[in-house]
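Worked Example 4.2. Consider the chain below.
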Amino acid sequence: MFSILDVLASVGRDWEFLHGAPPAPATFAASYRTTNGAPYWDLNGRRITPDAALDELPGPDLVIVPEMQFDPNRPLPEDLVELARWVAMAHADGATVASVCSGALLLAEAGLLDGNEATTHWAFADMLERDHPEVSVRRERILVPAGEGHRVITAGGASAWEDLMLYLIGRFVGAEAARRIAKLHLISPHGDGQLTYASLTAGRQHEDRTVCEAQLWAADNYACPTPVAEMASRSGLSERGFLRRFRKATGQSPADYIQSLRIEEAKQLLETTDMPVESIATEVGYSEPSSFRSAFRKRVGVSASVFRRKWRILSAVGTV
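Applying the procedure from the previous section yields the following structure tokens:
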């Protein structure tokens, strides 16, 4: 949140200062606003003092809803529903509205994503699809401008605020200003999307004991040649009945769930070992490396070798 304010305030000022040039006229007069403008303690125990209340003048030309903390397995909290109404009114009055991470749920509640594509953090994508089926969720995307005049923009995970900043600065100020800000703040757009960051096994919570037992078995036996048939047999249900019950509880078919387990384990092996990709494919239950490579790219968005290069760099951090 404060990083967004700092970056917007630096446009036309900090690059010029470093290069001995006069500052440009300020483009963004950014402020942090809450429902009542009163100080509060945030989730991490910090005392936050907003700049103003939502209804104070002047009204906004641009609204950015930051990431928010709420349970993705429950309905949106009522106080956020009230906030969504204000966002809808601001948009109706002409403001461009953007969100970061879970903030997309607020835009959806405001009705601004109806019939449009949108993205959000991968952990909240299921909630967005469940509670707002009229929204086309692009969980692989980092940034999605939508609506008439692209006056609604959603950004994926919490760090996607950087991509949003470059987009907004480029749009309202110009490409050169966006390039300067990227260089100044060392911002690099997430060109490979957000699937490479997602945990594929972060599914919905449920209380179906039979399905829970099947999931626990699958966690240790996903490399089994016929895991879905084995889970159905162990459940005591017909295979068709088990499929229906599993999908109802988890939102996935058993086959999709097994694929997610296999790919998630493959990601861990790629991050932490030097095993060849072909060996990893066999280890997680694929008889053909080509099938593994295809499934990996489909679910993660990049090839296994590209994923390894991206994340293995973190393995060296503790040795430096």
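Confidence is low (pLDDT under 50) at residues 316-320. The beta strands are 33-34, 40-41, 47-48, 52-53, 62-65, 96-100, 117-118, 136-137, 143-146, 152-155. Compare this with Example 4.1 before moving on.
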